[in-house]
Design goal:
- The complex is a heterotrimer of chains A (332), B (372) and C (146).
- With 332 residues, chain A is an all-alpha fold.
- Chain A contains ten helices and no strands.
- By secondary structure, chain B is of the alpha+beta class.
- Chain B is built from 16 helices and eight strands.
- The longest helix of chain B has 30 residues.
- The N and C termini of chain B lie far apart (52 Å).
- Helices cover 28% and strands 16% of the residues of chain C.
- Chain C has a domain of 95 residues: Alpha-Beta Plaits (2-Layer Sandwich), CATH 3.30.70.
- In chain C, the strands form two sheets. Chain C has a three-stranded antiparallel sheet. Chain C has a two-stranded antiparallel sheet with strand order 1-4.
- Classes of the chains: A mainly alpha (332), B alpha+beta (372), C alpha+beta (146).
- The interface between A and C is medium-sized, with 15 and 16 residues.
Chain lengths: 332, 372, 146
């Protein structure tokens, strides 16, 4: 074991520990933001009792979830039932490993970083389906089947948009993608009309698909099914439910990070000076704020409306974007 | 093997939309027979909130029944009070002073606006949008504050008395009401842009939950339900009571018969109510608010009287049969929600469950009114 | 084709309008109070539980024990009793209890009193763990009030 390798392993372990901490902290405080932001939009104040301005509320919520008994329903598949929450939470953190937060901060910069993120994102879907099926509850399985349909339908436009970007950037490496957008906001991909005249629309498609992939409103038929019981997570109590909850917020973080990197220039500053980690975090939190904002502004779509939106609107638009990108690449 | 597969495919299961609802309608239980996601049959089970108001009408003197009127349809409590008081006044031959009638109209129309605002919020919550509820409640607070300053209560008003109203309104109330109307008028474009035009809301509500005029007539549905199906029936125009004939207002009617039509009817009704209130405030006469010589214990002449009012939910009717004593012989309350709900069974056949719940929401049911 | 695109564009526009509306509401004045640290003052006509009124000259309640309120109450929650002391012109109140657990705050008792002896209190913070707290002795309350 050479010294370099040991240093490498130590560095990796430190990074992963920090990433887990980052993901957990973000998930906890994003859940507080999820309650504070809508209350500000709804002319009220949100949690203010626990800690100053309610800052200790996630701690209280976490303690509450930890202290509940984990009930396993009769007839449930015990291994899969226990495995599903873990399988949901882990891929999000794994995706964070390859995201470059700034010029020098990245746990592991793969050449195929983008591909890795989308592959792990698919495991998330699989885990929710397992959780729903393993609960031995017909409403959970119906909801789980809906999750799969929804996620498949929205993976396609997401990947089409990303493909058109990758075509123009010539790389899957996230660090290089950000480097190619350096120098001020007119270089960012969202305004790169030379790559494709539909780039801002492509960003909107990406954002919509991210909302649907993370099962957020207005596409949250799965979890906010107040008509039928609680959807795929009905039978989960205590920390099992807590892990699903955390995984949702970690997925939002990952989606926002990827959106920042692909479209908004990563750690680049809008006016060209003082780039760094702070810009990355600012943009990422702006996207997360937008995700929360969208949830509380609209009613839920119907299930067939959701699928119609994907198959009839988003996929054609994404295909048009792809063709336009190809044409622009060939011509210029 | 193939027979088993066939029976599994044709199998229906019963889903119990239990008395405890996430959607805040009250304690209504619906036994749904479902084929997958589609509803084959919806069997409502009511009576979880039955408190025997009609029997209480027989056991109490007429005046002692007044608090009960606020507890049936508590969202629009003043209409119930108006119906009861109007029926007894007709029997007893009491003449209500003009000012009292105007005050009744003003407070009833304010109550109608607050009931519709609550309905808009609750309907959007059923559909998954939680924010408009809070905005509607913010507007509704102003109405409740106004009515509290006059009647002393915010929800279960016990304000109308035989022969008039119990308290007079003062200048603060008049100024406050005018201010409120101006503020709500300026908020209506916001609701229009935020809710009515929202593409997701429209996709959830347009073209769904069709109730034909024929079905409405068959089940006796009234109120915004029938006005959203093209029939211009409003008790205030068909059988004018109180001083409604003195005011200039329209009855909004939409012919699309879907949930969107019923939503638009209620929004338009709020605008019409504001017009009525303004006209009433402008022409409010001075005078007493209580008739003279109303006996302490009312003993109306023997007779049978029916009085119906246009409640926020439909035609609310009260039938009083008097045998000359101080208790009524029979008190019958005609609940608009009962008739409106009875068409749910026929109209929800073949619908998807969330669509059926949107239909249920658009009927504007308050279950204590059904159960009485 | 054109209607398809127009529908998408108009639909997305309404979504942005909706988001803008929720955004500007974030900067409006809060309409909630931080209860129980702040609380509201009730309007003068607010119907809380009833209280006896005191005659400022004598310091005694104005009630002459005519029993009109007890007769008017639909829920039977008022029980009062009085006795005529030796040499006094009329009956004086010896006990007045209100069973608040059945009171419906209708106000018929206050209206039925011809001697202006009852009024509504403005109390609404009435949570308690003990049912006896709601069997209010109104005579004691009025005599103890400063």
């Amino acid at each position: 074991m050479s010294r370099d390798m040991i240093m490498d392993i130590v560095r990796l372990v430190l990074y992963v520990a920090c990433l887990v901490g980052f993901a957990a902290f973000n998930a906890a405080y994003l859940s507080l933001l999820e309650r504070k932001l809508p209350s500000w939009m709804q002319l009220r104040r949100g949690p203010t009792e626990v800690g100053p301005w309610g800052l200790l509320q996630p701690v209280a919520d976490g303690l509450k979830l930890l202290s509940k008994q984990i009930l396993i329903p009769q007839g449930a598949d015990v291994l899969l039932f226990r495995l599903a929450p873990v399988m949901v939470a882990v891929p999000g953190i794994l995706c964070l490993v390859t995201i470059p937060f700034s010029e020098t901060i990245a746990a592991r910069n793969f050449n195929l970083g983008l591909l890795m993120i989308f592959s792990f994102g698919a495991i998330n879907v699989f885990a929710v389906m397992l959780g729903g099926w393993a609960s031995n509850n017909k409403y959970s399985s119906i909801a789980a089947a809906r999750v799969v349909a929804q996620n498949i339908a929205y993976e396609i436009p997401l990947l089409l948009v990303v493909i058109s970007l990758v075509m123009s950037m010539h790389t899957f490496n996230l660090h290089t993608i950000v480097d190619q957008q350096a120098g001020g906001f007119w270089h960012w991909n969202i305004l790169a009309l030379k790559v494709s005249p539909m780039m801002p629309i492509a960003f909107l498609i990406y954002f919509t698909c991210m909302l649907a992939e993370t099962n957020r409103a207005p596409f949250d038929m799965v979890e906010a099914e107040s008509e039928l019981v609680a959807g795929a997570f009905t039978e989960y109590s205590g920390m099992g439910f807590g892990l699903f909850f955390i995984a949702e917020y970690v997925n939002i973080i990952v989606g926002s990070c990827v959106g920042t990197i692909l479209f908004l220039g990563g750690w680049d500053s809008p006016f060209g000076f003082l780039p760094g980690l702070h810009w990355f975090l600012l943009k990422m939190y702006a996207l997360s704020f937008a995700v929360i904002w969208v949830r509380w502004s609209f009613p839920r779509t119907q299930f067939y409306g959701l699928l119609n939106l994907s198959w009839k609107i988003l996929i054609p638009l994404a295909l048009v974007n792809l063709v336009l990108t190809a044409i622009m690449l060939k011509l210029f | 093997m193939s027979i088993d597969a066939q029976s599994v495919l044709n199998e229906t299961f019963v889903l119990n939309l239990g008395p405890q609802h996430p959607a805040t309608h009250g304690v209504l239980r619906i036994k749904l027979t479902m084929d997958g996601e589609y509803i084959m049959d919806a069997d409502p089970v009511i009576g979880y909130g039955h408190r025997m108001h009609e029997k209480m009408g027989e056991n109490r003197t007429y005046a002692k029944f007044l608090p009960n009127t606020g507890r049936m349809d508590y969202v629009a409590a003043l209409f119930n009070g108006h119906g009861y008081v109007g029926a007894v006044e007709r029997l007893a031959g009491l003449v209500v002073p003009e000012r009292a009638e105007y005050i009744r109209v003003i407070t009833s129309e304010l109550n109608r606006i607050s009931s519709h605002l609550l309905w808009v919020g609750a309907f959007l919550v059923d559909l998954g949008g939680f924010t408009p509820l809070l905005y509607c409640f913010d507007d509704r607070e102003q109405i409740l504050d106004l009515l509290e300053s006059v009647t002393g209560a915010r929800l279960t008003f016990c304000y109308y008395r035989f022969g008039g109203v119990s308290n007079d309104i003062d200048d603060d109330f008049v100024a406050g009401t005018r201010k409120f109307i101006a503020s709500l008028r300026s908020r209506m474009p916001m609701y229009d842009a935020f809710v009515t035009k929202n593409i997701i809301f429209r996709k959830r509500v347009e073209g769904l939950g069709a109730i034909s005029a024929e079905t409405c007539r068959k089940y006796g549905a009234t109120g915004p339900v029938i006005r959203g199906s093209g029939v211009a029936y409003d008790v205030r125009k068909a059988e004018p009571y109180s001083v409604y004939s003195k005011f200039n207002f329209d009855v909004p009617v939409y012919t699309q018969c879907d949930c969107m039509a019923r939503y638009l009817v209620r929004i338009a009704e709020m605008g019409e109510s504001m017009r009525i209130i303004e006209q009433a405030l402008d022409t409010l006469p001075a005078g007493p608010v209580m008739a003279e010589k109303v006996p302490r214990t009312l003993k109306p002449a023997k007779g049978d009287c029916y009085f119906n009012v246009e409640s926020a939910r439909g035609s609310f009717g009260v039938r009083v049969v008097s045998d000359g004593s101080e208790n009524a012989y029979r008190l019958k309350l005609r609940s608009p929600c009962f008739s409106n709900m009875s068409l749910f069974r026929e109209c929800s056949r073949g619908m998807l469950l969330p669509d059926a719940l949107a239909l249920l929401g658009s009927l504007d049911l308050v279950i204590p009114d059904i159960d009485r | 084709m054109i209607t398809y695109i127009k529908e998408i564009v108009c639909g997305v526009y309404t979504l942005f309008v909706g988001m803008w509306i929720t955004f500007i509401h974030m900067f409006r004045r809060r309409v909630t109070l931080n209860y129980p640290r702040q609380s509201l003052k009730m309007t003068p006509r607010y119907r809380g539980h009833i209280d006896l009124k005191r005659d400022e000259a004598t310091g005694q309640p104005k009630c002459i024990v005519c029993m009109a309120c007890q007769r008017a109450c639909p829920s039977g929650c008022i029980k009062l009793d009085g006795a005529k002391a030796e040499g006094a012109p009329r009956k004086a109140l010896t006990s007045y209890t209100l069973d608040f657990t059945t009171c419906s705050l209708c106000g018929l008792c206050v209206e039925s009193c011809n001697f202006d002896a009852l009024k509504f209190s403005k109390e609404y913070n009435l949570a308690s763990m003990n049912k006896d707290d709601y069997r209010m002795d109104l005579l004691k309350r009025v005599l103890e009030k400063k």
